Amino acid sequence: MADVCLERPREVAWWSAADLAEQASTSTATVVRACQNLGFTGFQHLRMLLLRDLGATSGDDRERQEAPRTRMGLMRTVFDEVARDLTAALAPLDEDALDAAVAALARARRVVVIGNGASAHWAAAVAFRFVLNGRPAEAPADAVLQQVTARHLTPDDVCMAISDSGVNPYTLDPVEAARDAGATIVGVTGHARSTLVERSDIALVVGGSGPWSAHGASSTVVMLSFLIGLQVAVCEARDGSAEAAARSLNQVVSLLKPTN
Fold first, then answer.
1. Residue ranges of the SIS domain (predicted)?
2. How many Å apart are CA 61 and CA 258, to the nearest integer?
3. 3 and 23 in contact (C-beta within 8 Å)?
C-alpha cells in the first residue's frame, strides 16, 4: 500500500480506501490499519495531507520565481501558506472524539485548562473565552499550581491539556495528577502518536505531525482557531449565546475604564 502511495500520490489523493485497496491487491481494512501504523488516524487523514503536500509542491516553483522582494510580498506569502495549511488542519480530527469532548466540557462541574511553554497562551485564551460565555474555567499559569490544582479535581471535572508536541513534561505531570484524581482528560495536540494522546480519555488531534510552513505561524493559527471553535461548540451545548458573551465583554470593558 505504501509503495502505491509513493509511486502514484496524485492519484491516491483522490481515491477512496477501496480504490487504494484494489490497486494494492489488499483489503480496505488492511489499508486503514496500514495508515494507522504509519502514524495517520486513517485513510482520510493520509489523503487530506497528500492533498495539502501536493498543493504545496505545485506552488514551490512559482513561489521561488516570485520570491517576495518587499515586506508586503513576504506578508502575502505567510498568509497564503497559513490559509493552505488551515484547509487540511482538521483532517486528523476524530468527529466522535470531538462530540465526546464537547459533551464532557459542557457538563463538567469544573474545567481546568493546562498549557505550558508555547501552549500557555492558548490555554489562557480558551479559558478566558469559556468564562466570557458563562462556562467557569481556569488556567493556572504556574506549573506547581497546575499540579496542586489537578490533584484536587474530582470525577465530575475535566482537565483539558493543550500541547502541540504532546510530550511536554510540565503538561504531562498535571495530567497524571488529574488522572489519579479521577478527572476526565481531554488532550489537544498536533501529534497523533504522542504521550498526551496515550494518557487522554478523549484525544483531539489537529494540524499535522510534520514541520509547518509559513515561517512557523501555521501551528499557532491552527491551534488557536480550533480552540475557538471548540469553545463555541461548548457554548452552544450549554445554550450559550453571542449576546451573553457581548454583555460579559462590556462588563469587563467598563471595569477597565479609568474612573477619572
1. 101-251
2. 55
3. no
| 188-214 pLDDT per residue, tens | 998 888 899 999 999 999 975 444 444
Q: Walk across the sheet containing 111-115 and list its strands.
A: 111-115, 158-162, 184-189, 202-205
Question: Is it the case that residue 65 has pLDDT exceeding 50?
Answer: no
CB-based burial label for 25 (10 Å; 0-12, 13-18, 19+): exposed
Supply the DSSP symbol for 183: P
Alpha helices in the chain (DSSP H): 2-7, 9-12, 17-23, 28-37, 43-65, 71-88, 95-107, 120-132, 143-151, 169-181, 195-199, 218-237, 242-256
Between CA 102 and CA 23 the distance in angstroms is 39
Question: Residues 192, 205: contact at Cβ < 8 Å?
Answer: yes
Region 106-116 average pLDDT: 97
CB 171 within 8 A of CB 140: no
Task: Quote the longest CA-to-CA distance of the chain.
Answer: 78
Give the pLDDT score at 74.
79
pLDDT at 64 over 50: no
Asked if 185 and 179 touch (Cβ cutoff 8 Å), the reply is yes
All domains of the chain, ordered by start, with CATH? 2-67 (1.10.10.10), 95-248 (3.40.50.10490)
Q: Report pLDDT for 212.
A: 43
Kindly state the average pLDDT of the residues 84-113.
90
Q: Is the pLDDT of residue 241 over 60?
A: no
